């Protein structure tokens, strides 16, 4: 055994860990055996987005378009220049058309979803699902979101009868659970009134895997072929069984109702099942799972982080409320798609929230064709590439005083001055987030409903700077987020 360990150590340190050095690419020195993956006590580890930001800051001193790190023995490129990021996402997309995220359709069919699928399957499915998020559909869904937002007001008012301090991340998670349940599946999840709702619990588990699952995800990324041979899964069986059962039950009800009665996400998936596309139940469940989980987590975190920043910046909160109060009477004080579309300062506030706290701190791409950067650096086929969004959004060379919350950064004239890839909360190019308009819409409606009726202030436990739990795949407040809320007279 000792001989095997010694030989393995020599192979890794003298050959595998020399990949970037041999090519003259700046890299972060790896450690045996995990490369640049975090080691040490759990209490000293940081969220992956913050870790990648530290790598970015060190590598950016080089002149290259990208630098290098290692995941176990696998070399991974880290994008450093915004022009290179633009080329990867748009101009040279054909070289980077896959995300390179592990999925195992045979053993874990729900892992084969729109987020993970390779180009050949993704492009067909994306084209068929895009009509779900047209302007007409957005207007229809805004009515449903506004109804849930009214329930949110009632729920917060009821909560305040027990005290002024509210765990805002949990409340926002319950709101977005009910929104997506209604808009996508026509299901009343009722999690605003039932905090222990199973839908919310299952959606959370997708983005907050166990320590063992997180290690497995690293392994599956580094060694995807071996992971498939070992029958490894992205989602545990309980999550898979739950969402498959929900989809099957929903389809049974829809088949009895007749086609097109609701015209929502599930209706479109059922139409694809009955068309030449012939989606299977597993394929439908896979899209339903990722839409529900991603929509729940990204929007609930954005809402919570936004209210956190507004609680610390009273003048900004007041300005948002004044805009809401100025525009709402034109629409009989109803929250509509048209009314929120007029709220331009609210857009700026949400964008600044997404800059400081992008839901996904990094984008991932796989090199599908060999690629040469403008500097002559070569990226080999099947190389994985990270675009560190959180790092870019916090780069002081791009955003002065990046830790300060300044919505005016997103005034039109300021946006025009910056590189188009300086702000990437939903990605860019053909593989950007398909539901970004829906996510922004539900975030705006939730904020309008709350800020019209309530003021938010820091509580005694509210942090002045945010720390993130490393247990979540997305940026999530560590230990919850408690704010004081006061109903306005």
Automatic annotation (TrEMBL):
InterPro entries: Cyt_P450 (IPR001128), Cyt_P450_CS (IPR017972), Cyt_P450_E_grp-I (IPR002401), Cyt_P450_sf (IPR036396), Insect_CytP450_Detox (IPR050476). It is found in: Endoplasmic reticulum membrane; Microsome membrane. It holds the Pfam family p450. Its cofactor is heme. The lineage of its organism: Eukaryota, Metazoa, Ecdysozoa, Arthropoda, Hexapoda. Belongs to the cytochrome P450 family. It comes from Phlebotomus kandelakii. Heme binds at residue 433. Gene3D superfamilies: Cytochrome P450 (1.10.630.10). This is Putative cytochrome.
């Amino acid at each position: 055994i000792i001989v095997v360990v010694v030989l393995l150590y020599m192979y890794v340190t003298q050959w595998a860990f020399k990949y970037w050095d041999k090519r003259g690419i700046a890299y972060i020195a790896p450690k045996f055996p995990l490369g640049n993956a975090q080691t040490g006590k759990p209490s000293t580890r940081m969220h992956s987005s913050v870790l990648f930001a530290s790598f970015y800051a060190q590598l950016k001193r080089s002149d290259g378009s990208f630098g290098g790190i290692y995941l176990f023995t696998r070399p991974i490129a880290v994008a450093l220049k915004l022009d290179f990021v633009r080329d990867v996402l748009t101009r040279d997309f054909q070289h980077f058309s896959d995300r390179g995220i592990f999925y195992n359709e045979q053993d874990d069919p729900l892992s084969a979803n729109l987020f993970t699928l390779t180009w050949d399957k993704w492009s067909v499915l994306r084209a068929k699902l895009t009509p779900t998020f047209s302007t007409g559909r957005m207007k229809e869904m805004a009515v449903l979101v506004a109804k849930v937002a009214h329930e949110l007001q009632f729920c917060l008012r009821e909560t305040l009868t027990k005290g002024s301090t509210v765990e805002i991340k949990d409340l926002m998670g319950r709101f977005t659970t009910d929104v997506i349940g209604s808009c996508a599946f026509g299901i009343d999840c009722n999690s605003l009134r039932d905090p222990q709702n199973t839908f919310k619990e299952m959606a959370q588990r997708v983005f907050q895997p166990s320590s063992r699952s997180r290690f497995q995800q690293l392994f599956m990324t580094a060694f995807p072929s071996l992971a498939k041979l070992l029958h490894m899964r992205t989602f545990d069986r309980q999550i898979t069984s739950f969402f498959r059962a929900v989809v099957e039950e929903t389809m049974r009800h829809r088949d009895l109702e007749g086609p097109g009665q609701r015209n929502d996400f599930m209706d479109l998936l059922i139409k694809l099942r009955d068309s030449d596309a012939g989606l299977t139940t597993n394929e439908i469940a896979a899209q339903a799972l990722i839409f529900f989980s991603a929509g729940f987590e990204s929007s609930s975190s954005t809402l919570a982080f936004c209210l956190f920043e507004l609680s610390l910046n009273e003048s900004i909160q007041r300005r948002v409320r004044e805009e809401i109060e100025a525009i709402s009477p034109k629409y009989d004080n109803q929250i509509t798609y048209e009314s929120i579309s007029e709220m331009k300062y609210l857009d700026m506030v949400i964008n600044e929230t997404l800059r400081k706290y992008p839901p996904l701190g990094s984008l991932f791409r796989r090199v599908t064709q060999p690629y040469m950067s403008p500097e002559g650096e070569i990226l080999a086929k099947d190389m994985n590439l990270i675009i560190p969004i959180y790092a870019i959004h916090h780069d002081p060379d791009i955003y002065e005083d990046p830790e300060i919350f300044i919505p005016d950064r997103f005034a039109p004239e300021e946006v025009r001055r910056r590189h188009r890839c300086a702000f990437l909360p939903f990605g860019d190019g053909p593989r950007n987030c398909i539901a970004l308009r829906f996510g922004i819409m539900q975030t705006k409606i939730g904020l309008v409903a709350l800020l019209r009726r309530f003021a938010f202030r820091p509580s005694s436990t509210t942090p002045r700077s945010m720390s993130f739990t490393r247990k979540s795949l997305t940026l999530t407040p560590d230990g919850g987020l408690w704010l004081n809320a006061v109903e306005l007279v």
